[in-house]
Specification:
Length: 336
């Protein structure tokens, strides 16, 4: 009987010790903490209208309302991200440790490109953190999205920008040919039009950064219209090619044409200046050739008379020869 009492006392002591240990252990040692809920808010970019030549980087902001939790990299309750061209990205995971309802706004930062109409929409994101399956178990975060000025649920924060190309501007270089003198046949004069850069627009019919064009006789020579679609400063040189036509002295002037294209409120404007090689300003590009004839034929300007003069000269020579022969024969006859 004594032995049984001792065993009973020992069991009692073990039970008391176990209760004391449970009382001093933290709650975290008895049950696992519920996992934090997370959400990663995405944003989407779309561009409509004309096609931009280069993709632009668009900036978007996520702003916390009333101190809501924010993703890493946030500054003073704001996180910004960028999308280049069309596409999508996300602001980064947001971790929630407590049940509740959290609010955010999502917007696009207006850029400086005049050709864009930037989307002014502001989205309101409502994140609700609740128990997933049971109280005290795993938490889950669910996001509801709506436009700030509306009540209807939105599938995603989509921002649509419209791109509009400005109306092109054009320049038709004024090239004038002047001829001093009276050539019998109108000469064909050729000009060379060259751009300073391969990026400069050129008129139709150009080969690379050069175009040659001609004019028969005096008057306006047509280089062709140049169309500009982008702002910038564009330089060209214009000169006449020495064609080597006998009797002509060719103009050696070289002109510089500078076209400045600017953009204001999405509209292009151009200003054009002309200069000679010595820096003298010019209102137009004029090339003067002088013709001096060394021919024995009169320069009437009528090419149809040339054959007549040749015939008359030939007849005159024949008649002159005939007269000489006739006089010689008459002289010989009289001498006999």
């Amino acid at each position: 009987m004594t032995i049984k009492k001792r065993r009973g006392c020992r069991g009692l002591l073990v039970a008391v010790a176990a209760l004391l240990m449970l009382s001093i252990l933290p709650v975290s040692a008895l049950a696992a903490e519920p996992a934090n809920a997370t959400v990663n808010i995405p944003v989407y970019k779309q561009v409509v209208g004309d096609t931009p030549k280069t993709d632009e980087a668009y900036t978007f902001s996520l702003n916390a309302v009333d101190g809501a939790p924010m993703p890493d990299g946030s500054v003073n309750g704001t996180k910004t991200v960028q999308i280049t061209g069309e596409g999508n990205t996300a602001f980064g995971p947001i971790s929630y440790t407590e049940l509740g309802e959290y609010h955010y706004t999502i917007s696009e930062t207006k850029g400086s490109n005049q050709r864009y109409d930037y989307d002014k929409t502001v989205y309101s994101a409502n994140v609700q953190v609740t128990w997933k399956d049971r109280v005290g178990g795993e938490m889950i975060a669910t996001m509801y999205l709506a436009k700030e000025d509306g009540i209807y649920k939105q599938e995603k924060a989509l921002f649509t920008n419209r791109y509009t190309m400005p109306t092109p501007v054009s320049v038709d270089p004024p090239v004038q040919k002047v001829v001093n003198g009276s050539p019998a046949v109108a000469g064909t004069f050729t000009f060379r039009f060259v751009s300073d850069s391969s990026a400069a627009p050129m008129p139709d019919g150009s080969s690379g950064n050069m175009k040659t064009f001609s004019r028969v006789g005096p008057g306006q020579a047509e280089a062709g219209t140049i169309t500009f679609t982008e702002p910038g400063t564009y330089g060209y040189t214009i000169s006449e090619v020495n064609g080597g036509i006998p009797g002509y002295t060719y103009d050696k002037t070289v002109y510089t044409m500078t076209v400045k294209v600017t953009e204001e409120n999405g509209q292009l404007q151009q200003s054009t200046q002309y200069q000679k090689a010595d820096g003298t300003a010019a209102s137009a590009m004029s090339f003067t050739n002088t013709f001096k004839s060394n021919s024995i034929f009169p320069q009437t300007g009528d090419t149809t008379n040339l054959t007549l003069w040749i015939v008359l000269l030939t007849v005159s020579v024949v008649v002159l020869i005939a007269v000489v022969i006739w006089k010689k024969k008459r002289t010989d006859k009289n001498s006999h």
